[in-house]
Specification:
Length: 200
């Protein structure tokens, strides 16, 4: 409940909130892919309320998925969480970012089911938090004959553009904007006076 007014105040300044980690993220140690088993009533009444209230009452724009799994399904790839609950029931308008899309042990062996591929294709995720080698091959099966993946990627791009357009990133600053420092005459005079008084 504290999160709702905090999110509302932040969003009122044109800054988008990413509430994290949604959801069932109850441990930090060895949390990579931990499978959490709970019934829907428990998940909705206990774990999802912390995300539902800030979105519905505080207009929080975005969410970061958790590192855990809902049963055996990665949170970032869970349609019931991302598409049905966050976007459907709560009316979240922005993006879902994954939690750390990369290898955790330095082996460059990213779990293909864990994050972005099925996140975009099934779960409604939009942005990977990190990167993986281009040669990982996880998107290879979607190169031909998978128009649904192309549409899912298009929807993700649309949500990223939408949340950027509705942020203070669009308040007149662009890639060609130059910031020039100008010192008014009175400030120069004040510096001079300070130097004179210091010398005296």
């Amino acid at each position: 409940m504290i999160g709702a007014p905090e999110c509302a105040a932040i969003e009122a300044k044109g800054v988008h909130v990413y509430n994290k980690h949604c959801a069932l993220n109850n441990q930090e140690t060895n949390r990579h892919g931990v499978c959490t088993w709970a019934n829907e009533q428990t998940i909705r009444e206990i774990y999802l309320r912390a995300f539902e209230i800030p979105i519905m009452e505080g207009n929080a724009f975005n969410t970061m998925a958790s590192f855990s799994r809902f049963g055996v399904q990665a949170a970032a790839a869970c349609k019931a969480l991302g598409t049905d609950f966050l976007r459907g029931k709560c009316g979240m308008k922005g993006v879902i970012v994954t939690d750390a899309y990369s290898d955790m042990d330095g082996s460059q062996d990213c779990d293909p089911y864990f994050e972005q591929v099925y996140g975009v294709y099934i779960g409604g995720s939009d942005i990977p938090d990190g990167s993986a080698p281009k040669t990982d091959g996880h998107f290879n099966r979607f190169e031909t004959g998978y128009s649904q993946m192309a549409w899912a990627m298009r929807e993700s791009a649309k949500r990223v553009c939408y949340q950027t357009a509705w942020s203070n990133a669009m308040n007149g600053i662009s890639s060609s904007t130059q910031i020039v420092s100008i010192t008014p005459w009175w400030q120069s005079a004040l510096y001079t006076a300070d130097a004179v008084f210091l010398a005296l």
